[in-house]
């Protein structure tokens, strides 16, 4: 299936000399791949949606149905892709979506999506709710297309082969590409395109079995994964829960480069990069790319946003 074009490509690769120095790397060692600078509020899910929505349209879909956490960036970008393509969107959200923490929810209202709050359920129960919603839509005469959690089917993961190809042009000598791992499709596409030894994934505890997920998707793309480089030391108390290292990473990126990270994924990914430099698995002189996968709207749906504002105002 020919993918749709939903954003502008390639995304830029920006040098980050001040961040590099703060991490203990040489000033020229680090660059940031700006997949946060895409359409739909920014983020990695746009690449996946170009493939997933193309398939949905060719199957005659009238409405996209997907699932995620209360502040799912994938849900927000699915709603935006649906609007762009003249389709409906139903978002089945787990966790506790609340107007106290608007973030992505505010954008989903603007985008015209319908939200189904599934409550605090596990992955299987969330899938079950999605199937129920799809069944209801069919009974109403609609044609639903169910997109997987995080867009991470083999079709979605395949989209990151395109990012790998951009990086092969923009940073052919990159020894390390550092990326947050949620549902795993982004890392899987990069591994398929660049090789397992050049991709360092940092788990965010979005799924219980990230290694198996990524390996399975790499295999589905027709590659043998080899040993994956997947750090699980930044997950802290779980998905969406900030760690001191992630908080420090957000401040460092902002204060050295004006680079804005999100608390759920990219802050933990940069904390993982810092840990990799500290333990010697990334060394000065090795060209390193940090993949910024977006997610900034989620900051305004996270409790830390209020704490940051309070902290600032305490010194006003
Ligand atoms: C979904 C997401 C990720 C993780 O991507 P996966 O392909 O699900 O592993 C990373 N960063 C942000 C901002 C995301 O929204």
UniProtKB/TrEMBL annotation:
* Xref: InterPro entries: ACCD_DCysDesulf, TrpB-like_PALP, TrpB-like_PALP_sf
Q: Name one Pfam family in it.
A: PALP
What UniProt keywords are attached to this protein's entry? Pyridoxal phosphate
Active site residues per record = 72 (nucleophile)
- Per the record, residues carrying N6-(pyridoxal phosphate)lysine are 45
**Which GO terms fall under molecular function for this chain's record?**
D-cysteine desulfhydrase activity
Cofactor annotation:
pyridoxal 5'-phosphate
Domain (Tryptophan synthase beta chain-like PALP) spans 5-294
Q: GO:BP terms for this protein?
A: alpha-amino acid metabolic process
Zinc found in the keyword field: no
Family assignment? Belongs to the ACC deaminase/D-cysteine desulfhydrase family.
Q: What is this protein called?
A: Pyridoxal-phosphate dependent enzyme
Look up and give the organism this protein is from.
Geodermatophilus sabuli
């Amino acid at each position: 299936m020919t993918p749709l074009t939903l954003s502008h490509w390639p995304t830029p690769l920006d040098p980050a000399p001040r961040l590099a120095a703060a991490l203990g790397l040489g000033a020229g060692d680090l660059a940031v791949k700006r997949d946060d600078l895409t359409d739909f509020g920014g983020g990695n899910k746009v690449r996946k949606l170009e493939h997933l929505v193309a398939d949905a349209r060719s199957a005659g879909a009238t409405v996209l149905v997907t699932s995620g956490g209360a502040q799912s960036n994938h849900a927000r970008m699915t709603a935006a892709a649906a609007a762009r393509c003249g389709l409906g969107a139903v978002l089945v959200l787990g966790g506790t979506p609340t107007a106290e923490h608007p973030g992505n929810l505010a954008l989903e209202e603007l985008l015209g999506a319908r939200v189904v709050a599934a409550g605090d359920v596990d992955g299987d129960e969330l899938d079950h709710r999605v199937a129920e919603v799809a069944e209801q839509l069919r009974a109403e005469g609609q044609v639903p297309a169910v997109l997987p959690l995080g867009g991470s089917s083999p079709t979605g993961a395949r989209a990151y082969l395109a990012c790998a190809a951009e990086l092969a042009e923009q940073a052919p000598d990159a020894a390390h590409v550092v990326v947050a791992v949620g549902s795993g499709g982004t890392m899987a596409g990069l591994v398929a395109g660049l090789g397992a030894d050049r991709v360092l994934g940092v788990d965010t505890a979005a799924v219980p079995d990230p290694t198996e997920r990524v390996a399975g998707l790499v295999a589905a793309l027709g590659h043998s994964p080899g040993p994956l480089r997947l750090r699980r030391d930044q997950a802290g108390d779980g998905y969406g829960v900030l760690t001191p290292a992630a908080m420090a990473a957000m401040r460092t990126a902002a204060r050295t480069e004006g680079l804005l990270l999100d608390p759920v994924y990219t802050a933990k990914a940069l904390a993982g990069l810092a840990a990799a430099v500290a333990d010697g698995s990334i060394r000065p002189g090795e060209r390193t790319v940090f993949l910024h996968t977006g997610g900034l709207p989620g900051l305004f749906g996270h409790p830390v946003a209020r704490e940051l504002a309070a902290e600032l105002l305490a010194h006003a």
